[in-house]
Amino acid sequence: MSVLFLATEGNQARFEPGEVVGIQTRWDFESPPDAIEVRLVWHIERLSEEKPSWIVIPDKSRIENPDAQGDHACQMALPEMPFSFSGKLISLRWGVEVVALPFLEATRLDISVSPDRRSVMLHQDGT
Amino acid sequence: MMWISTLVGLGMAIWMSYRCACDYSNVLASKNWIETSCRVIESGLGADDELGFPIKIKYRYVFNEKEFVSDRYDLVEDSVAPYRWKQSVIDKYPVGSEAVCFVYPPDPRQAVLTRGWTRSVSRSLGILAFVSVTAWGVFSCGVFRLRQMYSDGETESPEVGWQPLLARSAQGDGSTAGLLQLRPVRSRFQETLIKIVKRVPVLVFALIAFILLYLFVVELGVVIWFTLILLLSLICDLFRLGYSGVKLALWSLCPRPRIRANTAIPSLGGSIDVEWSLTGGLPRVRRLKILLKGSEQTKMKEGKRSKRVRRETFAEVVIADTTDARKMMGGRQSVAIPKNAVPSMEFGKSSITWSIEVNLDVLWWPKPAASFPLCVMPVSCHESAT
């Protein structure tokens, strides 16, 4: 059974724009993967759409030809924009993702990015 | 309506093709008919019926030592031809005159006075060409519309992703006393004008198509309801155009709001100085309301085909709300941009927009409104930019 574990430093989930995120990842596969990629991603959720498209930030950490079991720690800087927010029609979510290639096995961790570290609620009623 | 017209048009095109093919095969076959002399025994125009005045002509001829009488003028009966043309045929064949007819050898009872490329074949081909072009035009319009409807989803690429909305209009038009003249996005007046201008060529095409089809269809004496469908669609379009025109005329008489601000790129948590004025206009404005609005908007599917832009306002700050005539004509106000909000952003078919909205309340008048976009920046981005 394969294991792909992902955590942020101190299990922190709220960040400011531009802040550096410490990421720790651990994996345990039956056969070694070609590569392990750790990346920052965000996507827009629309009211009418079921499938969100994740946008990958170009700055990513890639481990080529890793062993079948291993761990890795890296640091990645968040960009200044966009902020995490939640509205009635659209919402923007941030995440940290680790992907094992070519299995495409992935684990994602939700984080929020905004000046006050919390996802901005656009509407007062909290929707 | 467009698809019904396309289907009817295609149906007519197929029917006309069949008719043309039959006529043409008759024309080709008539080349083998035997030329024979004949004597006209009856010549004139029949009584006016649904198809006009039919040609009534009879002639006697001898073929293989047997006498026959025929009443066919040509291979393809053209009873709906103009009266003048029919009269010229009658004048050409007076009673008692000698003429030449063409006899079908296997069945000598069949004979005609003229053969070859007849008037009716030419006309059938003309109608076929016209109907085909019309059907193609309507079909193309339909395909274009479908492409427009379904292209919205395709044009958005997630890789393009987010980019700050540095709207062109938000740059303003130069400054006066430290204030920028903000440029409005398309007003309802402009939107309506564009709609009318876009509609005119379609209407002209529809009008020409209608007139031509009406002439052909009436002449052929078939499917009058087809012209009625076109006529109804044309009347609906003309009515809509007229309604938009009236609204346009009324809006053109309304006072025009002008907005100036100390910046078109304010920051979240910052403030913006807004100066307004009303120029021109005939009707009396009862109330002026100026708002700073933050909205999220996205294009959403409604049903299988249509898409609609949905908008939800998340922040609304009143800059001015007055019924005082003097204050309505001009004023200045500073307004704070909410801190705990999101800056202007664009994500393909979704966006976060900020704008200054001006609403005028005019009695018995379509409500004029104008929107002046702002590009609200996050604090850190703006600071690094300046």
Strand content of chain A: over 45%
Helices and strands of chain A, in order, run as EEEEEEEEEE
Give the termini distance of chain B in whole angstroms: 55 Å
Most residues in contact, chain pair and counts:
A-B, 26 and 29 residues
Which geometry of chain B do the CA atoms define?
elongated
- Structural class from helices and strands of chain B? alpha+beta
The level of helicity of chain B is: 25-40%
Q: Name the overall outline of chain A.
A: globular
Strand-residue proportion of chain B: 25-35%
Q: Could you give the count of β-strands of chain A?
A: 10
Instruction: Note the total helix count of chain B.
Output: 7
**The biggest beta sheet of chain A, please?**
7 strands, mixed
N-to-C series of helices and strands of chain B: HEEEHEEHEEEHHEEEEHEEEEH
Describe this structure in words.
The complex is a heterodimer of chains A (127) and B (386). Chain A is mostly beta strands. Chain A has no helices and ten strands. Chain A has strands at residues 3-8, 14-15, 20-28, 35-46, 54-64, 69-77, 85-86, 90-101, 105-113, 120-121. In chain A, the strands form two sheets. In chain A, strands 2, 4, 5, 7, 8, 9 and 10 form a seven-stranded mixed beta sheet that branches. In chain A, β8 (90-101) and β9 form a beta hairpin. Chain A is globular, with a radius of gyration of 16 Å. The termini of chain A are far apart. The relative contact order of chain A is 0.31. Chain B has helices spanning 2-29, 83-92, 119-155, 188-220, 224-252, 325-329, 379-385, and strands spanning 34-45, 55-63, 66-70, 98-103, 111-112, 163-164, 175-176, 179-181, 256-261, 271-279, 285-302, 306-322, 330-336, 345-347, 350-362, 369-374. In chain B, the strands form three sheets. In chain B, strands 6, 11, 12, 14, 15 and 16 form a six-stranded antiparallel beta sheet that branches. In chain B, β14 (345-347) and β15 form a beta hairpin. In chain B, α1 runs antiparallel to α3 and α4 (188-220) packs antiparallel against α5 (224-252). The radius of gyration of chain B is 36 Å and the shape is elongated. At the A-B interface, β4 of A face β11, β12 and α7 of B.
